[in-house]
Backbone:
């Protein structure tokens, strides 16, 4: 009887050990450097041989190439998934800091939209690299400091006017409408032009056509019908994680959304994650800037700006330290 009892204990222990060994490990997030060596310059090349000069916006094409606004060089640079950097469009080196490309967004048809620092119309770059004005009304419309652009599956372009305090929508024919915002800087939720924004600095659109905006120290959501609500953050500036208004944001420059409706935000020198329910966590980076690859808990950014993609396949971040970083969770 004792032998049988001992055998049962041994079998139970073996099964328990096997179950423990077979349990999946929790997902791990890591940060690597895709391109750049940290020095300012204009050098095409592979990975660390390439150089940039003050990166701003970022977007992806259907093949997984990353396009970044190289503000200081007045160029759009393309980076392959393997880290090969080339010049995609050349607008000429800006005469001062108040010029140069800042916002970029790729259309479903491979047209790249670009906003320039300051006030003026937007530009587009064809798949063959030809730069031209947008069609229709959009060609003659001046927008006030557009730091961020986004497109939806139907080819509509969304424009975040930092100083214009509103969100515009441009259809493929170039017709311009105001999706939300009165043009007066304030924080008011509401429908269409009844809503008010402090200063939209980053924008993203999900697959349902819902628009998300980084505005002041809050994250705002706009339905396709133009209804604006605040989903996270408050008037208090900080770096606190939490749900809804308990969360705090500091300096928001980039925003993207994945297929599950999860937002990824560039905030000062961190990458933040925001669920559809408004739960905010810090995915990578910390309050102290620097440059360190590795696990998200110890990785450092010189300053986060443009952001595109998602951690499952590759989240690409423009680092003010003249790097393009890649964040992956697996």
Residues:
């Amino acid at each position: 009887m004792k032998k049988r009892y001992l055998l049962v204990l041994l079998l139970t222990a073996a099964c328990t050990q096997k179950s423990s060994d077979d349990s999946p490990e929790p997902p791990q997030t890591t940060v690597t450097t895709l391109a750049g060596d940290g020095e300012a310059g204009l050098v095409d090349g592979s990975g660390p041989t390439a150089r940039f000069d003050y990166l701003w916006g970022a977007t992806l094409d259907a093949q997984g190439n990353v396009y970044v606004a190289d503000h200081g060089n007045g160029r759009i640079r393309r980076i392959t998934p393997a880290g090969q950097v080339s010049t995609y469009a050349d607008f000429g080196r800006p005469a001062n800091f108040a010029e140069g490309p800042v916002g970029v967004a790729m259309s479903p048809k491979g047209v790249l939209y670009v906003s320039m620092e300051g006030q003026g119309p937007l530009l587009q770059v064809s798949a063959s690299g030809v730069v031209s004005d947008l069609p229709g009304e959009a060609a003659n419309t001046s927008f006030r400091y557009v730091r961020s652009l986004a497109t939806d599956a139907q080819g509509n372009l969304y424009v975040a006017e930092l100083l214009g305090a509103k969100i515009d929508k441009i259809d493929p024919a170039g017709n311009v409408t105001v999706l939300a915002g009165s043009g007066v800087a304030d924080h008011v939720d509401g429908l269409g032009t009844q809503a008010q924004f402090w200063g939209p600095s980053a924008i993203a659109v999900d697959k349902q056509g819902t628009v998300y905006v980084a505005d002041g120290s809050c994250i705002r959501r706009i339905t396709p019908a133009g209804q604006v609500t605040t989903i996270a953050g408050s008037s208090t500036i900080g770096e606190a994680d939490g749900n809804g208004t308990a969360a705090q944001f500091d300096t928001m420059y980039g925003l993207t959304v994945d297929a599950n409706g999860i937002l990824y935000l560039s905030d000062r020198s961190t990458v933040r994650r925001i669920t559809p329910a408004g739960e905010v966590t810090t995915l990578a980076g910390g309050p102290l800037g620097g440059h360190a690859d590795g696990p998200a808990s110890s990785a450092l950014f010189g300053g986060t700006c443009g952001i595109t993609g998602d951690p499952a396949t590759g989240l690409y971040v423009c680092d003010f330290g003249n790097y393009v970083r890649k964040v992956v969770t697996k």
